[in-house]
Amino acid sequence: MNAEAILQGNSRIMKRMNPYEHKRQWNYLLLVFAAIIASGSLFYTNYLVKNIAKSEHTRAEVWARTMQQQLSSEDNNFLNYVFIVRDSLSVPAIITDDRGDIKFAKGLDSTKTFIDLEEQMAGKSLKKKYDPQYFKDQLASMKAQHAPIRLNIPSMFGNSYWLVYYKDSLLLTQLKFFPYVQLLLIAVFLLVAYTAFNSSRKSEQNQVWVGLAKETAHQLGTPISSLMAWIELLKDKFNAEDDPLLLEMDNDVKRLEIVADRFSKIGSKPVLEVHVVHDVVKDYVDYFKVRVSNKITFEQKGDTNLKAGLNIPLFDWVLENLLKNAVNAIEGTGQIAVIIRGSLSKKLVYIDVTDSGKGIPRSKFLTVFRPGYTTRKRGWGLGLSLTKRMIENYHNGQIFVKDSEVGKGTTFRIILKKVEG
Known about the structure:
The chain is α+β, with helices and mostly antiparallel strands. The protein has helices spanning 3-17, 19-72, 76-87, 117-121, 132-145, 170-238, 244-265, 277-289, 312-329, 383-394; strands at residues 93-97, 102-106, 149-152, 161-166, 273-276, 296-302, 307-310, 334-343, 348-355, 398-405, 409-417. Helices cover 56% and strands 17% of the residues.
């Protein structure tokens, strides 16, 4: 098996082990499943609507034919049967003559009185009040929904034909909108359930991480104190106060003490103090750059007087995560630049960390800050996630990928509120 095949195999394994990728696959599956349910619901409802609409058309046509039979038949017994059939049909309908004048209405609002055809045929009073605009609106609605049914009328009525217009019943109308209402309710329910579940899950995760961080800080306390004591004993025993090796050991132990202090602060509200941003960044960059390959050069430039509210242990952690990611992104020789500048109009401080590494695809600009996302063979994928939390939750700022191009490099931007004076 050649090296390329081994690398591809490792890449596939890492992709399967990546918890974020696994979570995203489940999200896609749930989305597909929801889409199948929604499509099935719409399809079945449309099937019912078509069948009910076909049934109502048949009922409207039966009603129209019985009306025609009523006008042409002299058999009273048959007319009674016709009336029973006609009155059993509840489809809203309006009959007009060939000039478009309304002659009769059925199944509409009974409070909008209309001349009854039976009373008209019986010679009763025709002076009934009704709302003509209501019937005109209903007729326009019926014309928009269905083509009319034509009735040939005997010549004694003075018209060659009448037209029967009808519209969908209230049941059918409600059924047409029901799937959309159903989907809306399901979506609202799923959104509320997901929000509640996600909030509860995040709360539990936060409690676990806070407990783990504080326990880590507690466990580190004893060996760090011992190391500090041993270094002091070495200095006294060998009279090596200025020995460069012991000084670097002392710096590293102090860094361990800072790391333990960081973990102890997780879960509590950190105290922000006003510091010159340039000085804080320079102190950490000077410490960091001597601990990486000399093939990587560091540059820091920009405004040296800008101030912001910082918690130095946590902000150093932010710089550490960004610089470590930058170093890991550089394969061989490269450059890392930290540029600090301010905005007069918005009273903000911008800190750009730029590397000449392999870059990030634009589709991953947001993904890189999510817990568990990593492109390294070893790593938890928590660095940038913690960085985002420390900047946004503790320093009231922002952090995002300002720019990146695959094969050329990446720029992360931190935005902090400037402190005047």
